[in-house]
Structure formats: C-alpha cells, structure tokens
Amino acid sequence: MPGRPSARRRTVRRGAALAPAARLTAASALAPAAGLGLAGCAPTGEAAAPPTPTAPVELGADSEVAPGTAKLYRDHNVVVSRSENGELKAYSSVCTHAGCPINRLDGTTLICPCHGSEFDATTGEVLREPATVPLNALPVTAENGRILAGPGA
C-alpha cells in the first residue's frame, strides 16, 4: 500500500515468535479460573452434608416410597427406591464423578446438576456419563413405619 511502510522481515519474525508466548500467557491466565469452576462442583468441607450417613438416619415414613418408585432425601444425600415386590434399596446420592450432591430425581433417574451424569435410583448404576462408577449402596430398613438408612440400619 502506498504511503504505508512495509514490515521488515525481522519485525515479522519477532511478532511470530511472540504470538505463541502470548497465547500461552492467555491460557495460563485462564487455568486458575477454570480450576475454580471445577472446585465449585465438589462439596465444601464443613458446609456439605457427609457423602453417606455415618450412622442410621431416619428418612421418613415408609409409605413415602410406593412400589416401583424412588424418593430423594436431599438433606441426607440418600435416595431410596422400592421394587414392585416391596424390597427397599438405598444409595448415596452423591455423584461418583465429581462429588456433587444430586438434587434431581426424574421418575427413578437421578440427574447430577454439575456435569449431567445420570444414575438408576433402583440399582445405583450409571445411565449417562461422565460418571463411570455406580452409586454407593447403603443398608436400609423399614421399622415402625419409618425408613432408616446407613450403617447399622
């Protein structure tokens, strides 16, 4: 272009050499921010409920879980299902992918809010990744019309 000085070969080479470094710097600056996003998925120490009950906990009335259904007990990070023949099963409702408490139950499918993993509330099995490990099974019983889950239940 007339009236505009042309770039010298040395200037072009210097710019090309700096460009990758600039990209690395920008990527490096994003890495801590990305880490913060992931840290938000994991429960925090004191504020989070334990991933599974450490003692038997009373969840609610035995009648709350009808045959062929499941109920999510968010306050205790437990899901309980009842088979058509009346057998109760309980699982931790903490996602095995990133430790997020699962807060959504659609029929008998648990859906993790962090990365979309899905689990079968009747078997604990993974239905959708990124989780690859099933939910942790918990002992569960019904006594005096109440559902108890956790060690010693």
Give an account of the 3D structure:
By secondary structure, this protein is an alpha+beta fold. It is built from one helix and eleven strands; from the N terminus they run αβββββββββββ. The chain has one helix at residues 9-39; strands at 57-61, 69-73, 78-82, 88-92, 104-106, 109-111, 118-120, 126-128, 137-138, 140-143, 146-149. The strands form three sheets. A four-stranded antiparallel beta sheet has the order 2-3-4-9, with no helix packed on it. Strand 7 (118-120) and strand 8 (126-128) form a beta hairpin. The radius of gyration is 26 Å and the shape is globular. Residues 11-49 have low confidence and may be disordered.
Q: Share of helix among residues?
A: 10-25%
Query: Which regions contain 5 or more consecutive residues with pLDDT less than 50?
Result: 11-49
Radius of gyration: 26 Å
- Structure summary, number of beta strands: 11
Outline the biggest β-sheet. 4 strands, antiparallel
Q: Approximately how much beta-strand content do the residues carry?
A: 25-35%
Strand order of the largest sheet: 2-3-4-9
